[in-house]
Amino acid sequence: MSPTVSVLVRNRDFRNLFLAELVVFGSDWFVMVPLLVLLPELTGSGVWGALVLAVDTGTMALLLPYTGTVADRLDRRKTMIGANLAALAGVLLLLGVRGAGTAWLALVAIAAVAVAKAFYSPAAQAALPNVLDPADLAAGNAVAGSAWGTMTVVGASLGGMLSSAAGPYVSFWVAAGGLAAAAGLATRIRRPLQAPRDSALPHPRTWPAIHEALRYIAHRPRVLALVAVKSGVGLGNGVLTVFPLLAGVYGLGSVGTGLLFAFRGAGALVGPILMRRVLTNRAWLLTGLALSMSLYGLAYVGVSVVGWFPLVLVLVLLAHVGGGSNWVLSNYALQREVPDRLRGRVFATDMMLATLAISVSQLGVALVVDQVSERTVLAGCGLVTVVYAVVWRFATRRLSLAEPAAEPEPEATRAS
Which residue ranges does UniProt annotate as crossing the membrane (predicted)? Predict the structure, then answer.
């Protein structure tokens, strides 16, 4: 039995956490794919789709510095359950989006879902090492990294087909049911999702806690490099805005949009599995991160010049083999570098920078999507990522992750 399958079979708590994330990620795509097709149909403009994506990522980016402190301060299991129930309420608001005059309600609903995800994501990421034995950490990251890709394949493809066959509102109901199921799975996790805290050390207040995490990142070049790496793919993420428009070019509508997102997810699923050997060799991690960014950018440049939809799908898959590998490699490296008491805040900062980069990319595309061709957007986003990869690797050329990280001294101890 392979290590990635074995850890799922042996570890019930990890299995429940993994299944909860599968359902959460799948529900997200039962919302996004139908909504990105519905809004242009209702409004006659591609801008609304770009705004939805930007609100989703931008709201998360603004909240993550605070929600990271919550992940380090409060019970992570309860945080995840509450976030899932709040997201469910946001999804139900989408049932009111029925015409151009109510398109604004989609932005409110997606903002509410994004608030919930901002609480859920740092808690789930920070909890992962606590449900895994040290020997299973690499295999567990490969499995957990595939969760998003797996459910992008399932959620995007089924969301597109269900929306095409039964309408977007049925998809929204399915997403709401999935979020309720995810909350139930989280209640079945029995291991503590954070390390025991020293009761003599009070929890720092929000702003001092954020400041401590930022100082920790700034004074450790390896952590700073890892926190900055996801932004390369994030700055190229504006390509997602033109997926519905690109499917329209080929006359494929909701089904084509679902296929594009599904092949995106397939790449994100395959990438972490292919890169599992790199996870076990820390000396390869920085080079692997630069190569994964470059693959993402070059593949989307390829999408911009080909004219056959099956080849477009293959290139999208290759792009997200790179993007998925980049995400999992950097997460694994950060888990090994950062101690538990700071992990939620550092991961929140990591996700904040990535989502800010995504928001910048999507807002940039929103400004030009009705004036330039889809192919120009694809080429521009791809080239931005390639340039970022080259600059990032040059800046990190003297760093190595081969040596173990040093445990930082607690803030309260230094102050005394």
Answer: 17-39, 45-67, 79-97, 103-120, 141-163, 169-187, 223-243, 249-271, 283-302, 308-334, 346-369, 375-395
